[in-house]
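Key result, reporting period 2: structure in, sequence out.
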């Protein structure tokens, strides 16, 4: 129904389009459902073997004084804190398909604007609560630069994940000492000076890839913040003349991870953003009428899970490892046409499976689609 309804998606619309009363849907949204297991099983059946886990929060527009968890959260679209809700979402990202599938969304509780540690603790708790389900999909966790914090990275590593993220531009890193140790008393030398991220030592960093757009170097260094060794990918982004335009550094807690793959996995994390965009545009992520915690949780996960189902419908008959262009709007148009067509068949008692009707049915289902 989320993929078939026209207009806003709320309890009133569910009552209009569905076979139950509006109050029945309100009561149903108060029930428990294991979204993480449901989506994990879906991903296992329809995705390739090269998967990573992504985590990212998303701002939800919501007004009212009595909505559970309402407060001021950072909105990436506005670039500032806005009044509303926030959800922290885990997604299974298929590298071969180049798309993300929703796994679980959990509502963030409001903390004061300047209390970033309060938010970070909630994000760590979300990871701990869903770790066992997520590890059945992948043990590679990819997060953006905001999560380059000791508490979050250590939580991920302690739970058995390989953590990949982008580091701060002023990250405190040290080269490993590889020369011959001096004889005599004293502790053996472990480090050989701080890494200058504006002018790296290219005798220590190894060039692994070079294109017209970028150069990728890799090296194993000591991260002072984490107090451990990490594999880093140092990327120089080039302009049209081949001059360095900007520099970024990415890290993995897996020392065997290649720099090219590290950068590829971090870039794939952005596919999560399309889940949020499609859910807000097509499956009513911002349109819930509920105010209680359970109903809000049910709606957020139902809205994002509907995008999973739309992607699986679009990929019907396509190999698991093959990427395709996806248009959620076209899937909604086709399914909306289908429920209206089924209504006509039922009311006019027309046999839908006659051979002469097949071409006409396909024509009606594709009516209004952009890529028909």
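The corresponding designed sequence is given below.
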């Amino acid at each position: 129904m989320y993929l078939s309804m026209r207009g806003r998606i709320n309890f009133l619309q569910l009552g209009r389009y569905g076979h139950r009363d509006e109050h029945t849907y309100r009561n149903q949204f108060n029930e428990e459902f294991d979204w993480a297991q449901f989506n994990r099983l879906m991903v296992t059946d329809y995705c390739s073997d090269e998967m990573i886990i992504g985590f990212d929060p998303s701002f939800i527009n919501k007004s009212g004084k009595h909505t559970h968890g309402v407060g001021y959260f950072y909105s990436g679209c506005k670039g500032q804190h806005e009044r509303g809700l926030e959800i922290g979402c885990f997604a299974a990202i298929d590298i071969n398909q180049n798309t993300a599938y929703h796994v679980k969304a959990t509502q963030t509780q409001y903390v004061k604007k300047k209390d970033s540690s309060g938010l970070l603790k909630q994000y760590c708790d979300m990871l701990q609560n869903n770790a066992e389900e997520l590890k059945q999909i992948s043990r590679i966790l990819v997060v953006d630069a905001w999560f380059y914090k000791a508490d979050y990275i250590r939580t991920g590593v302690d739970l058995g994940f390989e953590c990949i993220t982008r580091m701060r531009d002023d990250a405190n890193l040290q080269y490993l000492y590889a020369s011959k140790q001096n004889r005599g008393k004293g502790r053996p030398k472990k480090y050989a000076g701080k890494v200058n991220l504006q002018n790296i030592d290219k005798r220590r960093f190894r060039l692994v890839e070079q294109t017209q757009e970028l150069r990728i170097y890799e090296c194993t260094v000591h991260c002072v913040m984490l107090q451990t060794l990490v594999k880093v990918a140092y990327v120089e982004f080039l302009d049209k003349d081949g001059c360095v335009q900007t520099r970024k550094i990415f890290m993995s807690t897996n020392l065997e991870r290649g720099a090219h793959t590290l950068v590829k996995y971090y870039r794939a994390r952005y596919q999560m953003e399309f889940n949020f965009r499609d859910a807000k545009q097509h499956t009513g992520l911002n349109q819930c009428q509920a105010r209680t915690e359970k109903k809000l949780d049910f709606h957020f996960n139902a809205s994002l899970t509907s995008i999973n189902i739309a992607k699986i419908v679009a990929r019907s008959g396509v190999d698991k490892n093959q990427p395709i262009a996806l248009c959620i709007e076209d899937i909604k148009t086709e399914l909306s046409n289908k429920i209206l067509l089924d209504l006509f068949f039922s009311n006019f008692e027309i046999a839908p499976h006659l051979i002469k009707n097949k071409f006409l049915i396909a024509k009606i289902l594709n009516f209004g689609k952009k890529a028909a």
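The two ends are 22 Å apart (CA to CA). The chain has three domains: 1-143+269-321, 168-255, 328-365. This case is discussed further under Risks and Mitigation.
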